Amino acid sequence: MLLATLLFQRSTNALSLPLTRRSFVHSLVSVPIVTITTNNANAAGDDTTFTYSPKDGSFKLSLSLPSSDQFSLKQKPLKTHAEELTFCPSDSSERCSAKTFGVTVDPVKIKSLSEFGSPEEIVERIADAERGRDGIFEVKVAGFAPVKGGGVDVDYISKGKRGEKFVSTRTYVLNQKLFVFTSSVKGEAGFDDMKNIRDSFVIE
């Protein structure tokens, strides 16, 4: 979600939602009125398909949620993005900060991600934004790849005062909207599962 901040800062005149780096990192957001459909996993243990559409029907996104883990959609009290979905473990004994993923959607001036920079430049901006966070000692890019439709996937490992965090992202610009999927998990266990969720992220 850090790339969203950078694009906001570049596209301030086109946005109705002011966003500073401080408010992005520290503020919580609310889930807007949306249409949400969840197709439950069947007896064979197939993944669950989650689809989301805003009230105006301007887009639809979908994710495949693994049957092996239970996640719940969390509502948060403050709003800094036009729209945001945040998933945390359903088990209350597992903290959301230890394993979480979500999607943010915001209006931007640019019509494609390539207008913002090459995949390599976007990767470096994401890494630099993470390096600038309080308490972060080291950020290592684990991989990146262009995605069909003009998106970019980035994986990185962030080490800081609160331990080691494995992060996967997918970023698109479509119809002058910035879509950012971000997942994070503490420790390497579960990182592949989070990347699988990221890989299932589709916008229509």
Write the layout of secondary structure elements.
Blueprint: H1 2-10, H2 21-26, E1 34-39, E2 48-54, E3 61-65, E4 71-73, E5 83-89, E6 99-107, H3 119-131, E7 136-147, E8 151-160, E9 163-174, E10 177-186, H4 191-199, E11 202-203
Notable characteristics:
204 residues; alpha+beta; Protein Transport Mog1p, Chain A; four-stranded antiparallel beta sheet; 18% helix; globular
If you had to describe this structure to a student in words, what would you say it looks like?
18% of the residues lie in helices and 41% in strands. It has 204 residues and is an alpha+beta fold. The protein has one domain: 3-Layer(aba) Sandwich (Protein Transport Mog1p, Chain A). The chain has a seven-stranded antiparallel β-sheet with strand order 4-5-6-10-9-8-7, with helices on both faces. A four-stranded antiparallel β-sheet has the order 1-2-3-11. Strand 8 and strand 9 form a beta hairpin. The protein is globular and about 40 Å long. The two termini are 20 Å apart.
Describe, in short, the structure shown.
This protein is of the alpha+beta class and 204 residues long. Helices cover 18% and strands 41% of the residues.
